[in-house]
Design a protein that fits this description.
Layout lengths: L1 H18 L1 E20 L7 E8 L6 E11 L2 E10 L13 E8 L2 E7 L3 H5 L14 H5 L1 H5 L7 E5 L6 E8 L16 H4 L2 E12 L2 E12 L6 E11 L4 E10 L12 E12 L4 E13 L7 E13 L4 E12 L4 E13 L1
Antiparallel strand pairs: 1-2, 1-3, 1-17, 3-4, 4-5, 5-6, 6-7, 7-8, 8-9, 9-10, 10-11, 11-12, 12-13, 13-14, 14-15, 15-16, 16-17
């Protein structure tokens, strides 16, 4: 009888322990069918048209594991492992998106590993076309979107608690090899030589219909003496009948020519709106422009993009969407049109 009571007590204690821990599988499966047509107006290249079935029309397809353990006293241990996945091919990238462990509590949250940067916390928060990298004007036109290292390795990250709507975060990513001279890089493996030192900070406010976020990030490649500097300001205002979207960004010492170059820069902006036409259907539209300047004295270049995407909620987890986006690179007079219909499922 005593043995039975002891066994029950142990079982009860084990159950309580398990209840304090949780691990879940989550993800997004996003695939679209459509056409991309590129027209070189100056006849420098032939017009091309590609019909394809591919991933990530609205969001990056991914899967991951995340969990939390209650350590007591309001302290929790957390982890996350996240991999991009090609729904069209089944190819996976390993845990290349995020892989970290950390702690959270009344002090906020700290993370260690491959973590989304503080700048990435606010980047694209006001993106039209539901923040799509494929169809969204920011994803198509913004220089910063192309150059940002959103999920650097070797990162130490801290986020504050919410103070009456205000939150802030800061992150630092060690390149672990920045001290190497350029001549020494040939002696190490490509994986080691690809290091990047990154410093990032963001501040955001969200309360009622208002959201505003400001981020700043610097990143410097191993062997480079030039530091790319990214700044972005995002704001949204929900009127009920529509949510207004606005973004402004600047890139100093841009790498839009292929290599980070002192004096090269880009100034960019986007305006847009999300308009709910029914409880299930929302239309999102936006226009973006990036003006690129060159220290060499070459003429400024402009990239513009316009997007119109409609999303219909089939359920809480499944959304069907249709979209159109057009963009133009002024210097080459190249216009690209994108037509897409797709489905996004979250789990």
């Amino acid at each position: 009888m005593k043995k039975s009571l002891v066994a029950l007590a142990v079982l009860a204690a084990s159950g309580a322990t398990f209840a304090q821990s949780s691990v879940s599988v989550y993800g997004i499966a996003d695939i679209w069918f459509g056409n991309i047509e590129t027209d070189a107006g100056n006849a420098a290249a032939p017009t091309t048209s590609t019909t394809q079935l591919t991933r990530g029309g609205v969001d990056t397809s991914r899967w991951g594991l995340k969990g939390s353990e209650d350590l007591g006293g309001g302290l929790k241990a957390n982890f996350k492992l996240e991999s991009a996945i090609g729904v069209d091919t089944g190819a996976s990238t390993g845990f290349s998106r995020e892989a970290w462990v950390g702690l959270s509590g009344g002090f906020g949250e700290v993370k260690f590993g491959k973590v989304s940067s503080a700048f990435n916390d606010i980047e694209g928060a006001a993106g039209a076309a539901f923040g799509s990298g494929t169809l969204g004007p920011i994803g198509i036109a913004f220089t910063s979107d192309a150059e940002e290292n959103a999920r650097p390795s070797n990162t130490i990250y801290y986020a504050t608690p919410n103070f009456s709507g205000f939150t802030a975060s800061v992150s630092y990513s060690l390149d672990e090899n920045l001290a190497l001279k350029a001549a020494d890089l040939a002696k190490v493996t490509p994986e080691v030589a690809a290091g990047q030192e990154l410093k990032s900070v963001s501040l955001a406010y969200a309360a009622g219909p208002v959201y505003a976020g400001l981020g700043y990030q610097t990143q410097q490649d191993v062997g480079s003496t030039v530091e790319v500097q990214l700044t972005q300001l995002n704001a949204t205002y929900d009127l009920g009948v529509a949510k207004l979207l606005g973004a402004y960004g600047h890139v100093a010492n841009s790498a839009h020519s292929g290599v980070a170059t002192a004096g090269d820069s880009a100034s960019e902006w986007q305006i847009g709106a999300d308009v709910p036409l029914s409880s299930a259907f929302t239309l999102s539209t936006g226009y973006a422009k990036s003006t690129r300047s060159f220290a060499s004295g070459a003429a400024d270049d402009e990239v513009t993009a316009f997007s119109l995407v409609g999303a219909y909620s089939l359920s809480k987890r499944t959304t069907a969407y249709v979209g159109y986006a057009t963009s133009n690179v002024k210097s080459k007079d190249i216009t690209t049109d994108r037509y897409a219909v797709g489905v996004k499922h979250t789990f």
